[in-house]
Amino acid sequence: MGLNQFDFGKHLDCSSMVISRWERGLQKPPADCLIMMGKMAGPPAGWYFWKMAGISPEDAKRMLNKA
Question: By residue range, what is the domain housing residue 22?
C-alpha cells in the first residue's frame, strides 16, 4: 500500500510502535485492526485479514455489502 508505519498506524488509530511490534511478530493485531486492514486491502487480499479476525466469508460479504 506504500504506507510507512506512522501513516499505516494513523489509518488504524494506533502508534507506529505498535505496527513495528506486529511486523516483528512480538504482538498480533487485535480483531478490529485486522478487520480494518481487510477493508483497506479489499477483496481478494482482505480475505486473509478477515479470516485472521475470525470472520466467516459469509459475514465478510455481508459487511462489504453494507459499506
Answer: 5-66
